[in-house]
């Protein structure tokens, strides 16, 4: 039986009720907050396994709440919002959101993303080997294998793949990837990223034109699965 606790921070009573019914029917424990301030207090008093956060809150922006949570809260935060413009999505992901769904959302998809996020957060953080289908990444030896055969990667290609693998299932924005791999001064150089993602796909994907591991999130970034 699932004992994970989920905190819903949303000012719409009908949305909270819908989420509560679906989550509890899937054996999650549910706590609710209707304002950002209430959500911050509840999350600090009893740390939930995952937070569902609305952007449009009555007392403060969900983006502000997200930033405050990420000062100390390390578990998954999934944004649920009617805002579907690229700038809001990118801002949320850059500020530490684990995932982003726009309202109205499909319940099955939300539950799948919740399961995935919680599963990843419960995995051992210090694991030295990450397996993703036919791909195996040894983070200590810096060795990558596909179907048990070593793949030769450049240092940059390896660093990019390791970053993807450590954040499996999470959307990583172009800006985040560029900052982490090349540094702050390269955050607008998206062509660097396209080139290296392309070469990485040729080396790890069975069919680079139909990638199964490095998935493009149009206009936002990439998701590794």
Automatic annotation (TrEMBL):
Q: Specify the DNA-binding region ranges.
A: 127-225
Query: Which GO molecular-function terms appear in the entry?
Result: cis-regulatory region sequence-specific DNA binding; identical protein binding; phosphorelay response regulator activity
Q: Which domain of life is it from?
A: Bacteria
Query: One GO CC annotation, please?
Result: protein-DNA complex
Domain called OmpR/PhoB-type: residue spans: 127-225
Q: Which GO terms describe its biological process?
A: positive regulation of DNA-templated transcription
Give compartment(s): Cytoplasm
Q: Which UniProt keywords apply?
A: Cytoplasm, DNA-binding, Phosphoprotein, Transcription, Transcription regulation, Two-component regulatory system
Location of 4-aspartylphosphate modifications: 54
Q: Where is the Response regulatory domain?
A: 5-118
**What's the name of the protein?**
Two-component system KDP operon response regulator KdpE
Provide the species name: Mesonia hippocampi
Show the taxonomic lineage: Bacteria, Pseudomonadati, Bacteroidota, Flavobacteriia, Flavobacteriales
């Amino acid at each position: 039986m699932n004992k994970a606790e989920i905190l819903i921070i949303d000012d719409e009573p009908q949305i909270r009720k819908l989420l509560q019914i679906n989550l509890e029917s899937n054996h999650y424990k549910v706590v609710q907050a209707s304002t950002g301030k209430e959500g911050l207090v509840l999350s600090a008093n009893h740390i939930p396994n995952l937070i569902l956060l609305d952007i449009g809150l009555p007392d403060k922006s969900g983006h502000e709440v997200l930033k405050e949570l990420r000062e100390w809260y390390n578990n998954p935060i999934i944004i649920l919002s009617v805002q579907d413009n690229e700038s809001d999505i990118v801002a949320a992901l850059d500020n530490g959101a684990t995932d982003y769904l726009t309202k109205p959302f499909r319940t099955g998809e939300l539950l799948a993303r919740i399961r995935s996020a919680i599963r990843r957060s419960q995995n051992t953080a210090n694991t030295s080997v990450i397996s993703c289908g036919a791909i195996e990444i040894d983070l200590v030896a810096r060795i990558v294998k596909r179907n048990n055969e070593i793949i030769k990667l450049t240092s940059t290609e390896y660093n990019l793949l390791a970053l993807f693998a450590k954040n499996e299932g999470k959307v990583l924005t172009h800006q985040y990837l560029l900052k982490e791999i090349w540094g702050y001064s390269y955050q607008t150089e998206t062509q660097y990223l396209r080139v290296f993602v392309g070469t990485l796909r040729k080396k790890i994907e069975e069919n680079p034109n139909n990638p199964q591991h490095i998935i493009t999130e149009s206009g936002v970034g990439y998701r590794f699965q």
